[in-house]
Specification:
Elements lengths: L5 H9 L5 E3 L8 H9 L4 E3 L3 E2 H4 L3 E4 L5 E6 L2 E7 L6 E6 L3 H11 L5 E6 L4 H5 L10 H12 L6 E5 L5 H12 L5 E5 L16 H8 L4 E4 L6 H10 L3 E4 L1 H5 L11 H14 L4 H11 L6 H8 L3 H8 L3
Parallel strand pairs: 1-2, 1-12, 2-7, 3-7, 7-8, 8-9, 9-10, 10-11, 11-12
Antiparallel strand pairs: 4-5, 5-6
Length: 317
């Protein structure tokens, strides 16, 4: 059992204060997006959600040329990371079992800065498996998973939830989660059934912050511009904030003076190639970033089938 002493726990909590973070994003929060976000000033970066059963007992290998650390199983790559992000990457896990969660955490804990339990994903695959937002309706299981992690891993453990329609129910869940000994709580200020086009309910965070103080509380939802960071913290009292869609639109959102989308896209592709990222994933992300669908290079990007064609469209030599 690895229960942190009070001094260590305080230091762990401090990692999540006064920060601007990259949120977990399905298919987008892969290694090149995380490395680029750190390059542009992100304080911490979250991985895509990875299911505990997938990562548990994976084979770890290191590419000596690129420095990329790969976790694979049955010949399939599950997760990649790099020493350059080790002190700032938070591994987000999907789980419905304390035992499997712990097995997964022990597999990767030496290569990450923290482990986060996803309790907010509303996607069907996650909820049907008893993971993600389904855990919010099963607080005993949720807290059992967190306690297993907090008491047995060597890195900080955090949790990410959404809000209920019922504010009191949200507060009660937040209190129970905080009591497990986590180092920070992220709150996506939407309910399970709200879509991104619906305005995030920042006002729902104020009371959570007050109730859980001094535990760091991280705001997620509608951080689309650099200026939103200060607005969010001032209006809610949030310790830190994280962005998802803002980083997709332009990963340089983490700095006050952002670069152009074209420049950010070029840097993303270069980073992806250095990291040997799969071309399919790189193309998927680039097409999300490059929103000027009428630009002549967009059609070339859309039709491209390899890195060479993509580089040609973006003027990368």
């Amino acid at each position: 059992m690895t229960v942190p002493d009070s001094e260590k726990h305080q230091a762990w909590q401090d990692r999540y204060r006064n920060g601007y973070f990259l949120a977990p994003m399905v298919r987008v929060g892969t290694l090149p997006m995380r490395l680029l976000s750190l390059h542009y000033g992100a304080d911490l970066v979250w991985t895509c959600e990875i299911i505990d059963k997938s990562i548990a007992n994976c084979l770890r290998t290191v590419n000596d040329q690129t420095g990329v650390i790969s976790y694979s199983k049955d010949g399939r790559e599950i997760f990649t990371t790099h020493k350059d992000e080790k002190s700032r990457v938070v591994f987000q896990m999907g789980s419905a079992s304390p035992d499997t969660a712990l097995e997964a955490a022990r597999t990767i804990e030496n290569d990450v800065a923290g482990i986060d339990l996803n309790c907010g994903c509303p996607m069907k695959f996650s909820v049907q498996g008893g993971m993600g937002a389904a855990l919010m309706e099963d607080p005993d299981r949720l807290c059992a998973i967190l306690e297993a992690l907090v008491q047995n891993v060597s890195v900080p453990v955090t949790c990410k939830i959404r809000v209920f329609d019922d504010e009191e129910k949200t507060i009660e869940l937040a209190r129970r989660i905080a009591a497990t000994g986590i180092s920070a709580l992220t709150v996506h200020c939407r309910t399970r059934y709200m879509r991104p086009r619906e305005k995030a309910m920042w006002h729902r965070l104020n009371r959570i912050v007050d109730e859980l103080s001094p535990l760091p509380v991280i705001l997620n939802g509608d951080i689309c511009h650099f200026d939103d960071v200060q607005k969010a913290r001032e209006s809610t009292g949030a310790t830190s904030v994280m962005t998802a869609r803002g980083a997709i639109a332009n990963p340089s959102i983490f700095r006050k003076e952002s670069v152009s989308v074209l420049e950010a896209t070029v840097e993303f592709v270069k980073t992806a190639m250095r990291a040997s990222n799969s071309y399919a994933n790189t193309k998927y992300t680039v097409l999300l970033m490059y929103t000027d669908t009428k630009a002549p290079e967009y059609k070339v990007l859309q039709a491209s089938k390899c890195y060479e064609a993509m580089c040609g469209a973006l003027g990368i030599t």
